[in-house]
Amino acid sequence: MPYFDAASTAPPHPVARQALLAALDEGWADPARLHRSARQARMLLDAARETVAEVLGARADEVSFTASGTQALQLGVLGALRGHRRRGAHLVHSAVEHSAVLHTAERWEADGGSATAVPVDRHGRVSAEEFAAAVRPDTALAVLQSANHEVGTLQPVAETAALLGDVPLLVDAAQSAGRLPVPGGWSLLAASAHKWGGPAGVGVLAVRKGVRYSSPLPADDREGGRVPGFANVPAIVAAAASLRAVRAEAEAENARLRALVDLIRRRVPELVPAVEVVGHPELRLPHLVTFSCLYVDGEVLLTELDRAGFAVSSGSSCTSSTLTPSHVLAAMGVLTEGNLRISLPAGTTRPEVDAFLDVLPRVVAEVRAPLGLDLPPTGGADALVLDTLGKRCPIPVIELARHVGEVAPGGRIAVLSDDEAARHDIPAWCEMCGHTYTGEAPATEYGGGHGTAYLVTVRSDQGRSD
Question: What's the CA gap between 401 and 390, in Å, rounded?
Fold first, then answer.
């Protein structure tokens, strides 16, 4: 079964397996003790720390190991804010950061701090100048990811750092560490081993010398006082060994995977009607591509692809657990429904990609088939009200697409919806299909008892396919 979900977690690198098995025999003891077994574990831990530091461009004593990338981000954000509390209590981050950053920012605000989310463009990229402009005299920390986890867009980390003055910058390098060189200008850096093919349960938090840091957790002597608890030495050894191996292979493998992703980016819009490829076309991770298929639920599409033998991920606006839009896609102003993320692991072959491209059009067509979207235009009314109250995404957009041909060019459609995702999805659909989104009004003005009316003006040329 082709596995195309490396951005969630990469398959274990062969070197990680070898190093883990060896370290289980040699590095199981407590590295804080003084006996022979402990000294052996300590040597392995120190060597792993030096390896990770070298790849990240840090000093060994600047690197601490955490239980996950999420924990590294949480500790990094809170520890840096506490360390710089004399400066102020303001946090700046991009609107498309990982949820670990956003949830930590929410906690910080609940505890009396403040936070500013810097918007991104339609490709998911911040402007270095706009990011720096959000900094205030009381800003204690800035956070910016190196690459986005949902769409792969690279952020201008070094350019932004150069504009921040003495405000420390925490860089979330989870998606790029090992694959790409670490961008310059960071004060703190977080990464996650299972993203590069190391074992799960190992994160990295690096804090530059001279950067004030005060752990938000009770005091502990381990990991430089930043991360409490017993270190998983075998897993850390495997993480370091695989990081070094992945970095050594990165140039050749990145070129190979980029060619496969370029093929997907080019062929999917040719093979599947009404698809938008999102993320920056050039400034992006080499192995990741994301696209939105109109009029389908991303989770349904994911399930059908799984049945067809392909493991992919979805950034769909509606997931079975939350029924909330992807904050990344919403911030970009693109469609949040029918979204698929393809992230290729090392070793992915052209035949595997070709097989995916063969299967995808059939699967999408089968999911869309019951919707009746191929019905010919039937009329020319000047206005239409579509009541989708009580129906979840992507139903409001599906109904809009189904009935748009019934309205004369220049006419207006009011889509009544109480699903928050429609606020993002309907304007995004208009952008993709050439219609004009003209705003919103209370649904009561169009006969609805509650909710919002999303207003669309039909384009003058109905010849373009929706």
Answer: 18
Q: Could you tell me if 367 and 284 are in contact, meaning their C-beta atoms sit under 8 angstroms apart?
A: no
Give the separation between CA 195 and CA 13, rounded to whole angstroms.
11
Share of the chain above pLDDT 70, in %: 94
| Alpha helical stretches, state H, 272-349 | 298-307, 327-332
State pLDDT tens for residues 369-381.
Answer: 888 765 233 334 5
- Tell me the backbone φ, ψ of residue 75, rounded to 5 degrees: -65, -40
Distances (CA, A) of 453 to 385, 411, 437, 462: 9, 15, 12, 23
CA distances for 68 relative to 185, 198, 319, 356, angstroms: 23, 12, 24, 32
Distance CA 260, CA 338 (A): 22
- 47 vs 230, which has greater pLDDT? 47
87-98 confidence digits (pLDDT tens):
999 999 999 999
Kindly tell me the sign of the dihedral angle through the C-alpha atoms of 180, 181, 182, 184. Answer: negative
Q: Which residue, among 117, 46, 107, 48, has the nearest Cα to 73 in the 3D structure? A: 107
Q: What is the pLDDT of residue 408?
A: 81
- Edge to edge, what strands does the sheet with 114-118 contain? 63-66, 203-207, 188-192, 169-172, 139-145, 90-94, 114-118
Between residues 443 and 126, the one the model is more confident about: 126
What b/e sequence results for 243-279 when a residue is b if at least 16 CB atoms lie within 10 Å of its CB, and e otherwise? Answer: bbbbbebbeebbebbeebbeebbebbeeebbbbbbbb
* pLDDT at residue 461 in the model: 67
| Residues with catalytic function | 318
Can you list the alpha helix ranges (DSSP code H) found in 286-421?
A: 298-307, 327-332, 350-368, 395-403
For residue 334, the 8-state DSSP code is S
Point out which residues pair with 50 in neighbouring strands.
none
CA 195 to chain CA mean position, Å: 12
The C-alpha atoms of residue 120 and residue 453 are separated, in whole angstroms, by 26
Q: What mean pLDDT is reported for the chain?
A: 91
In sign, the C-alpha dihedral spanning 363, 368, 369, 370 is positive
Say how far apart CA 171 and CA 126 lie, in whole Å: 14
- Are the C-beta atoms of 280 and 153 separated by less than 8 Å? yes
Buried b (16+ CB within 10 A) or exposed e, 73-86: bbbbbbbbbbbbee
SS (H, E, C) 110-179: HCCCEEEEECCCCCCCCCHHHHHHCCCCCEEEEEEECECCCCCEECCHHHHHHHCCCCCEEEECCCCECC
- Give the pLDDT of residue 459: 87
